[in-house]
From TrEMBL:
Pfam family, one: PGA_cap
Listed Gene3D superfamilies: 3.60.21.10
KW Membrane (keyword) present: yes
Family: Belongs to the CapA family.
TM region(s), chain numbering: 12-32
Protein name, UniProt field: Poly-gamma-glutamate synthesis protein (Capsule biosynthesis protein)
All residue ranges annotated as the Capsule synthesis protein CapA domain in the record: 58-290
Amino acid sequence: MKNKKLEKEIVALVLTIVFCIIAVSVVLLILINTFNEKQKEEIIEKTKPPVVSNYSASIFFGGKVSVDDDLISEYTVDGVQDFYPLIENIEPAVSNNEVALFQLDDVVVNDYKEEGVPKSFADMFSSIGFSMVSLASADQLELGETQLLDSHTYWDNQIMYTSGSEAHEQGTTAIYDKNGITFGLLSYTMPQNIEGITITNPFLLDVYNDQKAASDIMNLRNQVDIIIVYLDWGEVDSFEVTNEQHRIAKLLADSGADVLLGTGTGSIQPIEWIDDTIVYYSLGNLLTTNTDLDERVGMIGSIFVQKTVVDGVVTIEKSQPKADLIYTTSNSTKIMMFDELTDELQNKESVYEKYSVVLTMLDDSIRIGGIK
């Protein structure tokens, strides 16, 4: 009996051992299979092609537009105004780019009486493809705060995005999306430009200071792909960039601005890269009634933007900065490219050579010409 009992115990023990071996083997097989599956998934994930999306856009920019009542009268016949001939020569250059910007000095008035500019004058810019406009100019306040506030009733109903002046909110930022790329525009005039001007409404004009501009850029950085800053700065009628312009440009570049566009000097100034920021120190005038040659020769520019998204990670590249000269004719006022000039400007070749040298004084890699 004892032997039978012992045999049963031995059999039970053997069966238990066998069961344990089988159980362990099954667990090991499951673990090995799971490990192999994970390895396969990792290999598949590593060999899986990344999801890549590419977007691109080119930006066109011009300088300041500042006109007088004589020009408005020149393009008014029997009470009918047609300003298109003023800018028709640069329409191809504007419309061939996805984003186009300029600065306007004058307020838009509802009832034109030789003050400000009529609605039809402002309309012509959007009609040829301009999408954003800087209003950060002390001249906007020339007719008083009430008139500037009234001007915003026009801009509030336009397709062009404005920056630098707002009826209700300070720190106006224009945000514009095109071709999958988001562009943000900030605009400032310098404190010295408003000396002697009383501003009771702080929202009407964005006045530059280091802390405000750096803060505006950093706040905008996570909202857009490209930050453009217009600056109404510099020494009037000077081709030379001041130390203060250099200092501000470096500060804004370090803060995250992508493109800096200067106006305010009347004359053109050089272009340069500061790390990954392109700086056009002064575009001069896009359209002017000033008689000085230095102010009638202006600059237009463009830059190409490439946005690449790889598995959700965004990379922005700015390249191909270009610049070219334009001229505002004095007889039958209009903007013209230099290669289109005939009798409107004597010695146009020598004038072009003189002023184009200014553009590359700080960086000879900038391409002159080719904006069509």
